[in-house]
Amino acid sequence: MAFYIGIDIGGSKARGIVFSKNKVVKDIEIITPLKLNSFKKNLKQIILVLTDGMPTNGIGIGVAGIVTKNRWQSSPNILF
Predict the structure, then answer these.
(1) Based on CB atoms within 10 Å of each CB, which residue in 21, 37, 51, 65 is the most buried?
(2) Quick one: pLDDT at residue 79?
(3) Largest CA distance in the chain
(4) The whole model's pTM is what?
C-alpha cells in the first residue's frame, strides 16, 4: 500500500496527515512554534509520529513564505 504525508504549516498551527487511496489514515495537529529551532524539532516529530515505521512514498509541505532554489527562505509566521 502506498502512503503519503501532507503537512500544512500555518501561523497558529501545523497539521499533518497520512493518506492512502484517497483516505486519511492518521492525522496530527500542533501549535506552530514561532522560533525556527523549535519549529524544526516539532516538524521532525510530526513526521516521526505520522510515519510510525510505515514506508512513505512522498511528503508534501505547504507553508507561507519565500522559497528559492527549493529552499525555504523566510516566512511571516516563523522567526529566523
Answers:
(1) 51
(2) 65
(3) 38
(4) 0.79
